[in-house]
Design goal:
20-stranded antiparallel sheet
Length: 765
């Protein structure tokens, strides 16, 4: 699971103790993280995960995860949180929460890759004050849903190996029979995670629903589990981790990831913070913070009000037939403190509906839908947002296009009205700024002969920016920059509003930029119809050719080696993206009338990258080893042909009075949002001075540096933080100068890390 990227964080403790640490700081798990999840960001050394970040439990096998890995609720440890700062949390915090709420929906991806769909079932099992909730309601349909994804080569996924690894992991880690392990796997029906107290004392829990109880009953009778009696109207169990002293490290290195995950699960009898409770009549396993588990027990056995009974749950909008759903109560924003922060919440996020989202498995891939609102006195009138328009300029792009961004420019106001409104708003904020901008626009008009009003009126209902590359584009270290320019092209196309104003724009571009402007010495200019060509002179060698074309309908500005193809596609409809089957399939997943669409041909781009890797002997061998280990080939996703994988993001915004309602649809493109949200939130929680993400090249050394630095953050020991940074530089420099020392450094770092944990109990308790 770690190597497949489904588990990237979590907490473990030494057997029989309450001393928890992040899995990234435990050498065997750190090695697995480093080897199999190099593309994923390591856990933050000194801060909480982003609000709404996917729970570590999401990637554990169906039997569940240790409560310490429950969403958003990490135990303190070497990678634990820094002491909270005094005062307001800042604008970055608010943005981080809002982005993080959206990221919650992206977090469902780890679950959905192996689990299937339905409606929200377990929401009726959790208390009404839950603030963040994720659920995969129906697991049995997972394989059929996944098989329906045309972008996946099922034959390149060794599902038998993956299933065997989980089954064998259960057998070996708990000492149960093969038939019992299979029974457990077959009976897992739904899984959910729930959290509350997001802005204060967070409590989290994971719920696993089973269709049958025989397998679980036998698992709970295995040696590592102990019946601790009644709790919350169910049966409480403690779980021992495997004994480290009984494990041969060389043997453990050969364990599968599921076995490692199962082996180090634990919850102590003495723990006052965590409970694992089994409800046999319900076939429900609950793992989480004690208080929340108690309240879940009241809902399950006493009929207390549940999340599903609340008005806020009723306001959430989930897509019909979704494979997974996510929910964040927007009322958590009310708990933000600080005068400036409260103004932002009132201005943009006042009394908004919950953040909600869904995941669907389609033929084109995984479609994530996110819904929410922006509301308040800072949200403008309808005319500040472009209206919905038919975004079809992609039909004028060449088939070689690999990415584009299309945006609606449709407005009910002309340039004069827009300028007046813009200056009025600026003056309402600052009179002097408004006057200065107005004077600047007038000076621009007098200097270059065109006004803001002319430019605005020249634009029609839509625009598109695009990048294209030759069909046989390839990376080559021997290529010169000019060769890459010749193999690619860019374009800006806008539908024409007032043709007379569009002609002014083209005239100003030609004269003020090329003929008499800064590009005069580098380019030779020649008129072409109502447009022009600008070709590099000798002084401009290495710069791209630029072509501008103007028709009654479109204005095109294009450059690079494929500029000619953009012109042909516009003027002759020759071999355009409109005929591309994979692009059509991606667009077919979008509902409504989006105001913005971004499409990227990740299949073609991915193929270029894979081809390059396959040409590197050392990387090719490493990739083969990873494929064998994971049971998934790099050919699992189709990167060529009509069924190749592409990504798309579509945004629709409806406005009324002081409310904007948005709907974001993302096809095969969650990663950027997750990384952006996580990065923003981490910065808001302390900035780069409080976070160190080591990359020494050795997992054990990364773990040592991370533990030392985060301990320094937690204790306020600046010398320890400085020492951690110094260690990182020394490790990196040593390995760079002599890679043969890697094995020795691994042993040294592993030993030093264990000694550090032992010598600094204040950072592990």
């Amino acid at each position: 699971m770690i190597q497949s990227g489904q588990v990237t964080s979590g907490q473990i403790s030494q057997p029989g103790t309450e001393q928890w640490m992040p899995i990234a700081n435990h050498p065997p798990f750190a090695q697995a993280l480093h080897a199999g999840a190099a593309a994923a960001a390591p856990p933050a050394a000194g801060g909480y995960p982003p609000v709404g970040a996917p729970p570590a439990a999401a990637g554990y096998p169906p039997v569940g995860a240790p409560p310490a890995a429950a969403p958003g609720g990490p135990m303190p440890g070497p990678g634990g949180p820094a002491a909270p700062k005094k005062g307001g949390m800042g604008i970055g915090m608010i943005i981080g929460i809002v982005v993080g709420a959206i990221v919650v929906i992206g977090g469902i991806v780890g679950l959905v890759m192996m689990l299937g769909g339905g409606g929200g079932k377990l929401a009726s099992k959790v208390p009404k004050d839950i603030e963040m909730y994720m659920e995969v309601p129906s697991i049995p349909g997972a394989l059929s849903d996944f098989a329906g994804m045309d972008v996946v080569n099922a034959k390149e996924i060794d599902s038998k190996k993956q299933i065997k690894d989980v089954r064998k992991g259960l057998e070996d880690a708990f000492g149960i029979k093969k038939a019992d392990a299979e029974d457990i796997m077959a009976s897992v029906e739904s899984i959910a995670s729930a959290s509350r107290g997001m802005m204060d004392k967070e409590q989290s829990a994971v719920l696993v629903q089973f269709s049958g109880t025989d397998g679980m009953e036998k698992l709970l009778k295995s040696d590592r589990f102990t019946d601790e009696g009644e709790f919350a109207n169910g049966t409480r169990y403690s779980l021992k981790s495997v004994e480290m002293k009984d494990i041969n490290m060389e043997d453990m290195a050969k364990w599968s990831m599921p076995r490692k995950s199962f082996s180090f699960m634990s919850v102590s009898k003495e723990s006052k913070r965590q409970r694992w409770v089994w409800y046999p009549d319900e076939g429900l396993l609950v793992m989480g913070n004690t208080s929340l588990v108690e309240d879940i027990g009241d809902v399950v056995t006493e009929g207390a009000d549940s999340l599903a009974d609340t008005e806020k749950w009723g306001e959430a909008k989930f897509e019909s037939g979704a494979a997974a759903i996510g929910f964040v109560d927007s009322k958590i924003l009310k708990d933000i403190k600080g005068d400036e922060e409260e103004k932002i919440v009132k201005g943009y996020f006042r009394e908004i509906a919950p953040f909600s989202g869904s995941v669907e498995l389609t033929g084109a891939g995984m479609l994530i839908s996110m819904r929410g609102e922006m509301k308040g006195n800072k949200i403008g009138e309808d005319d500040e947002l472009p209206s919905a328009a038919t975004l079809d300029l992609y039909e004028k792009l060449p088939k070689e296009t690999v990415a584009y961004l299309a945006v609606s420019m449709k407005r009910d106001e002309d340039g004069k009205a827009l300028k007046k409104r813009m200056l009025k708003k600026l003056k309402s904020i600052d009179e002097k700024i408004g006057e200065a901008v107005g004077e600047g626009l007038n000076e621009m008009r007098d200097e270059i002969g065109i006004s803001l009003e002319d430019i605005v009126d020249s634009v029609g209902d839509q625009m598109i920016m695009a990048v294209a590359a030759k069909t046989k584009f390839a990376f080559d270290e021997k290529k010169k920059p000019q060769e890459y320019i010749d193999d690619a092209g860019f374009a800006y196309i806008v539908s024409v509003g007032k043709f007379a104003d569009a002609k002014k724009v083209v005239k100003v571009m030609r004269e003020k930029l090329f003929e008499d402007g800064p590009m005069k010495e580098a380019y030779e200019v020649s008129k072409k119809g109502k447009g022009f060509d600008a070709k590099p002179k000798e002084e401009g060698q290495g710069m791209p050719t630029v072509q501008v074309r103007l028709t009654e309908e479109y204005l095109l500005v294009t450059g690079g080696g494929l500029a000619k193809r953009f012109v042909e596609a516009l003027e002759k409809d020759k071999k355009t993206l409109a005929d591309d089957a994979a692009h059509k399939t991606a667009l077919g997943t979008v509902s409504g009338s989006p105001r913005m669409v971004m499409w990227v041909d990740i299949g073609r781009i991915g193929k270029v990258g894979l081809d390059w890797v396959n040409d590197q002997e050392s990387m090719k061998e490493e990739m083969k080893e990873q494929e064998k280990e994971l049971g998934i080939s790099t050919k699992a996703l189709k990167v060529k042909g009509d069924d190749r994988v592409t990504s798309l993001v579509a945004i629709n915004i409806d406005s009324s009075s002081d409310t904007w309602t948005y709907h974001v649809q993302s096809l095969n493109a969650p990663a950027l949002g997750i990384l952006a949200g996580a990065s923003m939130f981490m910065k808001s929680m302390g900035g780069s001075d409080e976070v160190l993400i080591p990359d020494t090249g050795i997992a054990f050394c990364d773990a040592l540096v991370s533990s030392k630095f985060s301990c320094g953050v937690r204790t306020g020991d600046e010398a320890m933080k400085k020492d951690a940074r110094m260690d990182e530089r020394v490790f990196k420099d040593t390995l760079r100068e002599d890679s043969s020392q890697k094995d020795g450094m691994e042993k040294v770092c592993m030993k030093r890390h264990m000694e550090f944990i032992k010598d600094h109990p204040q950072c592990t308790q």
